[in-house]
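One-letter codes give the sequence; the fold follows as C-alpha cells. An example follows:
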Amino acid sequence: MKFTRDNLKKYGIYAGVSTSLLCGAYIAGNIFSSANSVARQEARVHEELTNRINAEVQQELYYKTMEIEVQKAQRVVDALNSEVEFVLLTETGSNILKHDRDGNWLTNAEIQLNLEYTAIWTLPSTKVAFVADQDGAVVVQYNPANIGIKSIDVVHHVVSTDKQWFGDAYTPQETAALVDIARDDIYNQVSSDLSYRHEAQANFENFIIKFAQNLGVSKVYFEAREF
C-alpha cells in the first residue's frame, strides 16, 4: 500500500485518535482506582470509628452495670451487719436421768427424770465479716468452729420416784439440781455430735445465699477466717 499524503494524514488522524483514547482510558483508570482507594480508606476509618465507639459504649455499660451490682451487694452487707446473731438450728430431743441415794433396801430412794429439751445453735455476728466485692459479689468470712450451742432449754420433764420404808424423798431443790445436771449432760452430748454443727453451717450459708438473691445479688462466696 502506498502512503499518499492523504493516507498519511488519515493514518495520523487515526493514530492520534487511538493515542488519545489510550491516554484517556489510562487517566480514567487511574482516577477510578484512586476513587476506590479513597472509598476503601473512608470505609476503613468509618469501621474503626464505629468499633471504637461501640467498645467505649460497651465499657461504659459494663461500668454502670458493675456500679449497680456493687450497690446491691452493699445493701446486702448493710442488712446482714445489723444482725446481732444468726440462729441457725433448733434441735429438739429427749433424755433420761436416773439417780439413787445408794442406801440399803430399807433406806434407799430413787428418782428418774424424763426430759424433753430444745438445743439452739447460733453464730454471733461479731464472728462474721461481710464484704461487698468490686464485681458485685458478697463475700462472707467466718470460721465454722464459732458456730455453737447458745442454750439448752428443758421444756418439759416428768419425775418418777421410788423409796423404801425409811428412805428420804427427793426435795424440790434436789430435783432442780438434777435437772441442771441433766442439762449439762445434754449439752455435752449434743455439742460433741458434729452432724448438728454441719447442719447449722449449711443452714447459715443457705440463708445468706437466699437473702442475697432476694436483694438481687446472685454471687455469694464463703471464705474461712479466724477471729
The first strand starts at residue 85 and ends at 100. The chain has three helices and six strands. The radius of gyration is 46 Å.
